[in-house]
Design a protein that fits this description.
With about 210 residues, this protein is mostly beta strands. It is built from two helices and 16 strands. The strands form four sheets. The protein has a six-stranded mixed beta sheet with strand order 10-9-8-13-12-11. Strands 4-3-7-6-5 form a five-stranded mixed beta sheet. It has a three-stranded antiparallel beta sheet with strand order 14-15-16, with no helix packed on it.
Length: about 210
C-alpha cells in the first residue's frame, strides 16, 4: 500500500533530549511478511506519516474508512520495538503501524446525535479520529475531565486504546462554558451542564489513565 524510502530517516525522540534520535525507514521489513510504518497524531486528532515535513489538513489522512480501520486496531505497543518513542500500535494485516502523539492517540472530533428506534429517544454519541459515525462511543457528560493547568478536556475511550481520549480544542472550548467550578476556578470543575441537565462530574475514572 505504501512504498518505503531509500534511506533511513532520523527524527528527534519526543521523550528524549534533543541530541537523541529514533531511526527508521518507512516500510522497513525487520522480518519476513512484516512491514513497519510510523505515524503521528496531533492534538486535533489528525493522522500523519511521522516524517511528513508540514503537518496540516492537506497532508493528513482523510479517508474515513481507512481511519476507522486504522483506529479500530489501536492498542498499546507491547512489541518491544520503538516502545519509548511510539507507545501505541495499529496492526493492519502484515503492517505494524507505530504511533506517537502530541497528547493521546485517540481524539474526539465530533458530536453526533442518533435516534434510538427502540426507545424513541435522541442519543448523543462522541465520534473520534475524524471517522464520523464509523467510530463512536456513547457520550458520557458526567465523565468529562478538564485539566485546569492545560485547559484540555478528556472523555472515556475504548479500553484497548488506553481508556481515555482527548477532546479536540474547538469542542473543548464549546464545553468550557458549561463547566461549573464549585471549588473555585483554580480547581477541577465539579459539574457540567448538558441539554439543560446538570451533572455532577466523576472525579475518579481518569486517575489511573492519565499520567
Amino acid at each position: 500500500m505504501r512504498s518505503g524510502f531509500a534511506a533511513s530517516r532520523r527524527f528527534p525522540s519526543p521523550r528524549a533530549l534533543k541530541e537523541n534520535y529514533v531511526t527508521y525507514i518507512q516500510g522497513q521489513s525487520p522480518q519476513p511478511r512484516v512491514r513497519e510504518y510510523f505515524y503521528y497524531v496531533d492534538h486535533q486528532g489528525m493522522l500523519f506519516l511521522d516524517d511528513v515535513r508540514i503537518r496540516n489538513f492537506t497532508s493528513c489522512f482523510k479517508d474515513k474508512k481507512f481511519l476507522a480501520f486504522f483506529f479500530k486496531h489501536l492498542r498499546k505497543n507491547n512489541t518491544g520495538r520503538y516502545t519509548d518513542d511510539f507507545p501505541f500500535l495499529s496492526i493492519c494485516g502484515v503492517e505494524r503501524n507505530f504511533i506517537r502523539c502530541d497528547d493521546l492517540p485517540l481524539v474526539f472530533t465530533k458530536m453526533i446525535q442518533k435516534h434510538n428506534v427502540e426507545t424513541g429517544a435522541e442519543e448523543d454519541w462522541f465520534s473520534y479520529a475524524h471517522a464520523d459515525d464509523l467510530l463512536m462511543v456513547p457520550f458520557e457528560p458526567r465523565r468529562l475531565f478538564m485539566n485546569v493547568k492545560t485547559g484540555r478536556v478528556y472523555h472515556p475511550a475504548p479500553e484497548k486504546a488506553g481508556g481515555v481520549g482527548l477532546v479536540r480544542s474547538n469542542l473543548a472550548i464549546e464545553f468550557s462554558t458549561s463547566f461549573n467550578f464549585e471549588n473555585g476556578e483554580g480547581n477541577a470543575p465539579t459539574h457540567f451542564v448538558w441539554r439543560d441537565k446538570r451533572y455532577q462530574l466523576d472525579t475518579e475514572w481518569y486517575r489511573d489513565k492519565l499520567s
